[in-house]
Amino acid sequence: MIAQGFGACALTSEEARRSCLEGAQSDYANALGKCANVSDPSARKACQDQALADLKDAQQTCQAEFVVRQTACAKLGEAPYDPVIDPANFVARIDNPYFPLRPGTTFIYEGQMPQGFERDEFAVTHNTRVILGVTCVEVHDSVFTDGVLTEDTLDWFAQDREGNVLYFGENTHELEDGLITTIDGTFMAGVNGDKPGIIMKAHPTVGDFYRQEFSLNNAEDFAGTLSLTEVVTVRAGSFNHCLKSEETTPLEPDLLEDKFYAPGVGNILTVDVNTGARSELVRIIREP
């Protein structure tokens, strides 16, 4: 049933919450079905208690996700999110000052994370992929934790004639002991209602707030521009006039990241506001 009097953003948020709650209830029923096959009464009771605790945690998460989406709706407005993509409005190069992607360039980031020492290799390839008729630059993003590959992703970006850099999707998977554990976050604009978002605006302004991607209940990052005058020092050097962006997602309600972008370079630092963990640019490798 479609709720009456809801704008598009609020309705999307409400339906996403309902879907989340129904999924939590389904998982609970499935867990109880497994508990029924535990023959020992005390162990079966423990299994049922854990299933109920997991249900309550999941329901709380659904509500937290709803709050993040509602907060975003207050900033985005209630119009449907349906960007018009005209392939003729895109250019071959991505040279936005805050997000340049020159093929043959690899950005190396490192930092101590709660799960271990992380090294991120963000390699701009010479490969392209056509999505919604737009030729996108393909980036291979590899994350290593304590020297072991834990995330492997292909990202697709394109720049329009105004200079906005759009994110058209990703093929991502996380690994453990060399095996894929999840492909959550994978999406492609134009498939299953998924839509591109803006990774970097052509002319950022303090107070900007926008979607970076849209795949409901799968990939929903938001970004807000906080400053254009930051001075940032990382292992790769010191940079002036940096853009500071605050990024959130309802899929991880507790996550809050500050990202810093240097003119002519791109992303140089990501800080988890809650934990203080930093992933900073340590080196840029460019093909001759």
Provide structural commentary.
This protein is an alpha+beta fold and 288 residues long. It has helices at residues 8-35, 41-76; strands at 90-91, 105-113, 116-131, 134-145, 148-160, 165-176, 179-182, 187-188, 195-200, 209-211, 213-214, 222-234, 237-248, 257-262, 266-272, 278-286. The protein has a 16-stranded antiparallel β-sheet that branches. α1 runs antiparallel to α2 (41-76). Mean pLDDT is 96; it is low at 1-5.
Key attributes of the depicted protein:
288 residues; alpha+beta; YmcC-like fold; 16-stranded antiparallel sheet
Topology:
Elements: H1 8-35, H2 41-76, E1 90-91, E2 105-113, E3 116-131, E4 134-145, E5 148-160, E6 165-176, E7 179-182, E8 187-188, E9 195-200, E10 209-211, E11 213-214, E12 222-234, E13 237-248, E14 257-262, E15 266-272, E16 278-286
Antiparallel strand pairs: 1-5, 2-3, 2-16, 3-4, 4-5, 5-6, 6-7, 6-8, 6-9, 9-11, 10-12, 12-13, 13-14, 14-15, 15-16
Helix pairs in contact: 1-2
Could you provide a short overview of the structure?
This protein has helices at 8-35, 41-76, and strands spanning 90-91, 105-113, 116-131, 134-145, 148-160, 165-176, 179-182, 187-188, 195-200, 209-211, 213-214, 222-234, 237-248, 257-262, 266-272, 278-286. It is an alpha+beta fold and 288 residues long. The model is unreliable at 1-5 (pLDDT under 50).
